[in-house]
Amino acid sequence: MKVTLLGSGTSTGVPRLGGEEGVDWGLCDPADPRNRRSRVSILVENDAGKRLLVDTSPDLRSQLLACEIGRIDAVFWTHDHADHCHGLDDLRPLRYGRGGPIPGYAGTETVRRLRQRFGYVFAGQYGYPTIVALDDLQNLRICEGFGIDHCQMPHGPAQSTAYRFDCDGKAIGYATDFSEITDDMLDVLDGCDILVVDCLRREPHPTHAHLGMALELVAATQADRAVLTHLDKSMDYQTLSGEVPAGVLVGFDGMVLLA
């Protein structure tokens, strides 16, 4: 299997808008292109060429163009926060030429909220076809040759979905936007070949994993390799790369890993 980090940044991206000159790099070196981070999303692909997209960030169009991705076979959402779903309309061109809508899946509450906010995507409107056929994850165990496991994670007062994708004896896990490690997370993510994990900053945060919590999850699940994502402007690529243990990588937009 292969996983591509389409985006690796926090909700405001890096650099962040603002500051005296309108561009705020924080502690990140603007000369290092790996510090330029769009909002998080990943693509998982197997040897048969089947592609699963996780989340539709506001930067989805530019991400897919940069990685030359013109087709997906299904889409999954972790939750309905803007930085994870507001690029949903960018799926429209990927619907062209298909015999039907793109299959889509999310947790029960996320399904409800997405339908409420993007009704035209899931039901069509004014003669435009349905873009995504949205279903609850409770109805799914396998998709396009991938075994799918999942669980809900605490995300401050909200929840986010962790995913595990299994294919041909390999496993890729995705756990972003969590603020506590639970037994369910340990069960679902145990022994992944690659674990892509939330790591907002070094200091604790009320709704996200910080560096210590991210490394704790990696150790507890005994992941073969881990990749840190959802990084904010305090997380300079080179500096952070020098702090993490062996087997842990700092993610960047366009990063590709093979399991």
UniProtKB/TrEMBL annotation:
Keyword line: Hydrolase
CDD domains for this protein: metallo-hydrolase-like_MBL-fold
InterPro entries: Metallo-B-lactamas, RibonucZ/Hydroxyglut_hydro
Listed Pfam families: Lactamase_B_2 (PF12706)
EC number of this enzyme: 3.1.4.55
Domain Metallo-beta-lactamase: 38-230
GO molecular function, a single term: phosphoribosyl 1,2-cyclic phosphate phosphodiesterase activity
Domain of life per record: Bacteria
Name assigned to this protein: Phosphoribosyl 1,2-cyclic phosphate phosphodiesterase
